[in-house]
Amino acid sequence: MIFLLRIQFLKLKNWLTRSTTGETLKTGGFALLGLLFLVLLYFGFVRVLSALRAVEIIGALLLLKILSMAFLTTFFMIVFSSALAAFTTLFFARDLSMLIHTPLPHRTLFFFKSLETAVFSSWMVMVALVPFLGAYGRVTGQGAGFYFLLMGLGIPFAWTASALGIGLSMTLMSVFPARRVREVMLTLAILIGTGLFLWARWAAPARFVRADNLEVIIQYIAQLEAPTAPYLPSWWMSLAVSSYAAGRLGEVLSYGALLGAVAVAAGALLVAFGERAYYSGWAAAQEGGRRRTVTPLGREWRWIPRFFSTRVRALLGKDFAIFRRDSNQWSQLLMLMSIVAVYLISIRKLPLDTPYLRGLVSFLNIGMVGFVLASVALRFVFPEISLEGRAWWVLRAAPMSLWSVLGGKFLSGFLPLSVVGVVLVWVSNAFLHVDPFVVWLSNGTVFVMAGALAGMGVGFGALFPRFNLENIAQIQTSAGGMIYMVAALFYVGLTLSLEAVIMRLYYYSRVAGRSLWSWEPVVLVGAALLVVNLVAVAGPLLMGKAHLERADI
Prior knowledge:
It is a single chain. The protein is mostly helical. The chain has two domains: 220 residues, no CATH class; 202 residues, no CATH class. The chain is built from 19 helices and no strands. Helix 16 packs parallel to helix 19. The longest helix is centred in the middle third of the chain and has 37 residues. The protein is globular.
């Protein structure tokens, strides 16, 4: 174990010592930008949680319910992320072909790779939870001990979730043929997404917004008092945190001890399972897949319109073929579609009685769709450059410019993003029955936003390439992925703020019964949006292209 840890330490040391001053300053600047975004989230959560705590009778129950839902969501995100990451880290990592034949016991190697999987699959999720927990501590008036408690409990909490995900991947590798495991994960993703959809459709939380039904309110309070998944570590974590906030230290110790004991037991069971099944699973993973017939030249991209150049058509066809053959990406895509379906059902069931309220929700829906598109681009567009891996030199040696390569990557990301965004906004507006002006404004905005987010994804992906990755999950959870997400959300928020001026003029005109439009603010907003989108697309693409030209790859 010490030998393996030393290897990781040397990797980190080499990365730190070989970084140039410019790269260090760039990484530090973007890290500060990410920290600023977390701080803004913190203050936003403070306002929301303060308002919820001030609610009469049910304020404390609301805080506990939101806390438990946050931990439950985090728990399942880590489980699913670690299950996907374990396939690459435990069975397909490039260094395994060397390490598996060293004198190291397979148990030691498995435990080390499990720890590596747990770190890569949980650190970003846990960091995203920090602003919420910090706001909870401030609203409830906690001191430094509260945050030390969170750090102490967070380790067994994240490890238990990661151990479950790793155990799931090990079980699938033991039961199913190696080449069929990803198809099994695809089926599980469909089942999970369908379950989420049915749960949201059955729960219909919007019905509790109406306060004219006493029976419904009593049922609502009963739901708040009921435990959320009481047999999962997320509920124990919630009770430990809320008990500390309430001064019940005895309950904190009991639930903390329970978390620690379960984490130790999960680790012991995982190691025992890995000692029996890891090597056979790794050996099965090295077997060749089923034979594929060779696709004739041009077959993969003959469906692409001919107004694109031949080189761009070839790049688009290659990326589409890679995506079509990777069931791992299909599983995540279906999960995304399930979450989108839940969101649309939530929009459909909102109790909106006035056209102005429907218009406001439709306008805010632009921001929500922008967030969804940014998340999709983080998973499917940002990694496109890095996914070329060792074959990147083939594209660089091909008779095409680097702009052609980046342009092909941009188109392969923009086309699906624009379709998803426009369909999502169009269906939402159909549910809300908003005015035609709002419909066309939101659709046009999301279409432009899809192009900007795709350009930013390709640009930041070229600026922070990870060609020598050990795990595909390391791409979007890297510092570059976090920086892209911060920049994308800032762009979406700025676009929404500028277009709020247009929406205000439109609804002021409707209320007044006469036109209050003025060309000065419209022109200024249009010019500002043009500049914002040009900077958002051209800036990352230019920097990414320059980095790829300078990098010794």
